[in-house]
Every structure is written in structure tokens, then in C-alpha cells.
Amino acid sequence: MLARGASVRGGGLLRRAGAPGRGLRTSPAARGGMPSWVIDRYGRNEVLRFARNMALPAIRFPNEVVIKVHAASLNPIDLSMRSGYGATALNMKRDPLKLNSEENEFPLTLGRDVSGVVMECGLSVSYFKPGDEVWAAIPPWKQGTLSEFVVASGNEVSFKPKCLSHTEAASLPYVGLTAWSAVNKVGGLNQKNCGGKRVLILGASGGVGTFAVQLVKAWGAHVTAVCSSDASTLMKELGADDVIDYKSGSLEEQLKTLPLFDFILDNVGGSTEKWALDLLKKWSGATYVTLVTPFLINMDRLGVADGMLQTGVTVGSKTLKHLCKGVHYRWAFFMPSGPCLDEIAELVNSGKIQPVIDQVFSFSEVPKAFLKLEGGHARGKTVISVINKK
């Protein structure tokens, strides 16, 4: 098997200097159409539309692959994007040079997770080949996975864990990479330094939380999970050492009775940020990482330049304030990464991480799946079976 490298996964165009422009290739099927769930405007669930004949995606860059979607899943970001959250920043990413005179994000296909089969590869993709079973999390500025086919960059794709069905695999990439970003890339925890550390996870029963509990437990941490009482059994099954019911009295007071923590992952935000950092060990490198940030809200409300400025001022002032108190304050975001999915796949195949699925819907039931997610209190992920093959 080829070693994974930049030229394979993210890479440049692999051709001789002076050769014709063969880096772009269009699928022969691209002249046809495919079924997709799209939105033509932002709003609530009524904006979802089933399109029977959307244009099939074409390879436009030599490092891209076309994936036939076997299963997808929903994440809170899909609800947010359906309503227009983050549109300013995402449109800037879609068209950074403002080459298009008008907004062109519609029709927009939602869905970030995919598990499926490679159908075609760009000319610089040598790590994958047609027929490979893969999984990926597609960045939110690209067309999504609630469709028969999707295009992904080779450096966003990884081989699907062999022990999982497509339905199971589709539940993990987006939440897995979000948790990995927060815990490893931003929080600095890894297999070598996590052993024995005390980790607190706020909002532990959702998609990111259930993954994070398993990840830090696989790395040897002592895990305290915060959730409602009906999820306590699940948390214990995933390896949590202590489970705290946030509904049984003051959560802050309950957590103050426990020893201090080395790391906190906050999936909840809101008022928790006001007191959660007091639960960290001071002057020991302890870190609080939150996934609830005002970055996209600021850009939607203030515009790109002023939004970025306000965001920078906010995070800078909070970081400095808490650093003076002896703890680290950080924001984390989803980051697409095939190589990180490789590491996650190893943990899955070794039995250290398992998918947590709340409910599976058929492709025709996508609006019902959105309503289910919108209702909250999910235990794990809401998955869409795009085709009847596992």
C-alpha cells in the first residue's frame, strides 16, 4: 500500500511539464442527474426539497474523488446551515475572490458525513482507486452528502473501518474530527500524555461527546461525563468513570465536590463558561476547550472584516484573562482531515471506539430526520441510509 503523502492526498498535479491539461476529468455519468435533498433558501424544515435530477458532481481538481454515498448522517451544523447560520463566512470560502456577481450557494445540499464507495479519481490521486470503501467528512463550504454522489478532496478521505457497515461508519467522521480537533489539535492530548489525566466532558451524550468520552478513555484518561440521567448507562458503557446528572441540582456545585480537572471539553456553552474554568488545576497546563464560539455569528452580524476583528478581540481577551489565572482557554472547530480519520479508523478497528447511533432513517425520510435532530436529547447520531446496502 502506498504511504500517505502530500502529493497523493492533497497534492499537486502529477504530470510532465508542458503536458496537456489532463488534470481535470469529468465523469461520463455527469451528463445525467441524481437524487438529492437540497434547499433553495434558508429557513426551517419546509425549505428542504427533494430533487430527482440534480447535476452529478464532476472532478474539477486532480486531487478529487467522486464517492457514491451509501450512508450519511446529520449534525447540528446541518440545522444551523439550513437556517442560514454562517452563510457570510461560508460564502466567502466558496468564492473568496468575489468572482461571481451574485450569491450562488443555492441549490445547497446539506449533510457532512459520508460512507460509501469511490467511483472515480482525479489524476493525482494514487492512494485510492475506484471500488474502495471510504468515509469522510465534507467541509461545510462544499456541497454535502444528502445525495447519491459527492465530490471530496483526496486529503479529506480515508478507508472505512473494516469492522463497520456503511450505516455505522457514516455516524463518526464529522463528530470524530470535531472531537479530535478539540482534544488533540487544540487541547494537546494524545496517547502518550493522556494517561491518568482527569477529563471533564460537558454535553457528553451527543455525537461529539460520545466520541470524545471514548477517545480520551482509549488514551488512558479518567473521564467525568455530564449528561441527563437517562444517558448514564450509555456513558458507563462507553467507559466514563463518573457520570453527573446536570438535572439533579446545581451542576456547578456537584462538580465542585470532585477533584480538579486537567482538561475540560465544553459542548454546551452558555453559562457553563462562567464557572467551568474554576474546575481546572491552576498553573499545571490545564486547558478548557469550547466548541461553542461566536465566530460565525460575528461574521453574519457584523460582516467579514468587523466580524473577524470582534472575534479576535474576544478570544484574545478571554485567553489572556484566564492565562493570568493559571489555566488555558481555547476555541476549537471541525477540521477535515483524511490522515486523522486514518488514526480514528485504527481505534475503531481495534475496538476502542464504537459508533453510537440514535436512529436510522431512509433517504426518503430526510425531513423527519431533521425534525428528530431538532427535537434534541439525541443519544448519539441520526443516520441516513441513502441506499439499502450496509
Overall description:
The chain is of the alpha/beta class and 390 residues long. The chain folds into two domains: 34-172 and 354-385, Alpha-Beta Complex (Quinone Oxidoreductase, Chain A, domain 1), CATH 3.90.180.10; 187-331, NAD(P)-binding Rossmann-like Domain (Rossmann fold). The protein is 29% helix and 23% strand. It contains 13 helices and 16 strands. It has helices spanning 6-9, 76-82, 87-94, 166-169, 173-186, 207-218, 232-237, 251-256, 272-276, 295-302, 304-323, 338-349, 366-374; strands at 33-39, 48-55, 64-74, 108-109, 113-121, 133-137, 149-153, 157-159, 198-202, 222-227, 242-245, 263-266, 287-290, 328-331, 357-362, 381-385. Strands 3, 5, 6, 7, 8, 15 and 16 form a seven-stranded mixed beta sheet that branches. Strand 12 (263-266), helix 9 and strand 13 form a beta-alpha-beta unit. Helix 5 crosses helix 6 and helix 10 runs antiparallel to helix 11. The chain is globular and about 60 Å long. The protein starts with 5 loop residues before the first helix and ends in a 5-residue tail after the last strand. Mean pLDDT is 90; it is low at 10-30.
Salient structural properties:
2 domains, Quinone Oxidoreductase, Chain A, domain 1, 29% helix, Rossmann fold
Overall pLDDT: 90
Determine the structural class based on helices, strands and strand pairing.
alpha/beta
CATH domain class name of the largest domain: Alpha Beta
H-E order:
HEEEHHEEEEEHHEHEHEHEHEHHEHEHE
Specify the overall morphology.
globular
Unreliable stretches covering 5 or more consecutive residues: 10-30
What CATH architecture label of the largest domain applies?
Alpha-Beta Complex
Number of strand elements: 16
Keywords: Acetylation, Membrane, Mitochondrion, Mitochondrion outer membrane, NADP, Neurogenesis, Nucleotide-binding, Oxidoreductase, Transit peptide, Ubiquinone biosynthesis
Organism: Casuarius casuarius
GO biological process, one term: ubiquinone biosynthetic process
Family: Belongs to the zinc-containing alcohol dehydrogenase family. Quinone oxidoreductase subfamily.
